Amino acid sequence: MSDKNIHGHIYALTANVLWGLMSPIGKSALQVFSPLSVTAFRIVGACIAFWILSLFCKKEKIAPKDRLRIFFAAFFALIFNQGMFIYGLSFTSPINASIVTTTLPIITMIVAAIYLREPISGKKILGIAVGATGALILILGSNSSAIGSGNIIGDLLCLTAQFSFAFYLTVFKSLTQEYSAVTINKWMFLVGSLVYLPISFTDISAIEWSAVPVSAILQVLYIIIGASFLSYICIMTAQRMLRPTVVSMYNYVQPIIASFTAIAMGVGIFDWQKGLAIACVFMGVYIVTQSKSKADIERLRKN
């Protein structure tokens, strides 16, 4: 494995560690703020952070042909994905939301096969199945009654978010080859802000800030900085280096992080199920990385 691929795996892992904390932290923030407010804070806050960071980075001009692509990328990566997930999380439990996230690699594999002509190989299917088994062992072995029950509307909204992000990972991968993560994100989050600010104004103006606890503000700050700003830098950098299906496989890390968060908070323990689940997840990632890409197959044919 090349250094470039190793770095890609580190970035994908980091993004999903940050997102793994999103379900419990986001669920807590939703006890104080509305889903629309949280989504607006997340997108607008990250937008400001990306534009500030861009002042210290090399300037890149967006080609006219790519402006519309970035506009639509923002809808799939942010507006639909983040909005649907936050709304879904407000209706369902973190456990159900975590189960739904395990569909991302499967959806991504199918979209990549249709759009990028990436082969659906036996190794890919096996890797996704092994990784999903690990994630489900962890999720179904947890005490779901301690964190609330699910809701079919919430589950479907979270599933829609997975479809949206899978489409983004596959269809807009070429943008990450042409522009830096900072350049793409500053424009995508600006588009997202222009959409969410008007429709969230009523919810935000109704907030009684004097009654908002400091913990809720800190949770929103994490959602902005950790689960949006830093995670989107990482995932776009990984997207530049790895195939869409490989990037999506790291979604299985999210329930592991949620589980370790419960252990750190003293409401969970590390047992053989968690150890087996972690082994399955990373074995699944490894198997998928060993599968041949479209480019690999074309090279073999030429030789």
Write structural notes for this entry.
The chain has 303 residues and is mainly α. It has one domain (3-302). It has 15 helices and no strands. The radius of gyration is 19 Å and the shape is globular.
Q: Can you give keywords for this protein?
A:
78% helix; mainly alpha; 303 residues; 15 helices; globular
Summarize the structure.
This protein is mainly alpha-helical and 303 residues long. The protein has helices at 3-20, 22-29, 35-54, 64-91, 94-101, 104-115, 122-140, 152-171, 173-178, 181-205, 214-241, 244-249, 253-264, 272-289, 294-302.
- The number of domains is 1
Distance between the termini: 21 Å
The overall average pLDDT, rounded, is: 83
Largest sheet: none
The SSE order reads HHHHHHHHHHHHHHH
Judged by helices, strands and strand pairing, the structural class is: mainly alpha
Number of helices: 15
Percent of residues in helical segments? Answer: over 70%
> How much of the sequence is in beta strands?
under 5%
Beta strand count: 0
Are there runs of 5+ residues with pLDDT below 50, and where? 143-149
Summarize the topology.
Blueprint: H1 3-20, H2 22-29, H3 35-54, H4 64-91, H5 94-101, H6 104-115, H7 122-140, H8 152-171, H9 173-178, H10 181-205, H11 214-241, H12 244-249, H13 253-264, H14 272-289, H15 294-302
Helix pairs in contact: 1-11, 1-13, 2-11, 3-4, 3-10, 3-11, 4-8, 4-10, 5-7, 5-8, 6-8, 7-14
